[in-house]
Amino acid sequence: MIASREPILTPVAVKELRPTQITVGMREVELKRRMIRAQSDKETGTFLGRHMVPVVLGPKKRNYVVDHHHMARALLEEGIKDVLVTVTSDLSKLDKDAFLIVLDNRGWMHPFDENGKRRDYGALPKSMADLVDDPYRSLAGELRRQGGFAKDTTPFSEFLWADFLRRRIDRSAVAKNFDKAMKQALVFAKDKDADYLPGWCGPTTD
Hints:
Elements: E1 9-13, E2 23-24, H1 26-38, H2 41-50, E3 53-57, E4 63-65, H3 69-77, E5 82-90, H4 96-105, E6 132-133, H5 135-145, H6 157-166, H7 171-176, H8 178-189
Parallel strand pairs: 2-6, 3-5
Antiparallel strand pairs: 1-5, 3-4
Helix pairs in contact: 1-3, 5-6, 5-8
């Protein structure tokens, strides 16, 4: 019988967490900030105890976040100093170039900017405070909550949906009337053109 491994939990200063993506949806961040503000300190502590931030240890033992960027940014904005992280892989022995290549090839990095364009590794922010807003990521997050697609384990799946929407809904329309853009997104999400995307749940004939 193989014993299951317990996660390695370590408290880390939120301001020291390193992103592995360039953007977040700031509307998503704001929703998480509201959730935090609505909780008591005890409730927030319990929540954070159950929602550890997964990280990969990189050079100089720095913590590179591989999920929950929106939560980490919200915690920073709300002045929460520390968060528990669970180390999914220790790559601290690698030099910086090799480390970034491994992150990229394992699907632990999303180096695309707010226009959906791939950037070089140097464009990755050094802190959660430097993450840039991508409104299409917010649109994708709301689309999932409204049943436009199912939650999926594919890395950065909501960014794939964001890119799909970016090519169909004008940015000015998202900024002007988010709810109207959301209705458009729900229609596009059910279309056969989206069936390659993770979590697609449109109608089928079989």
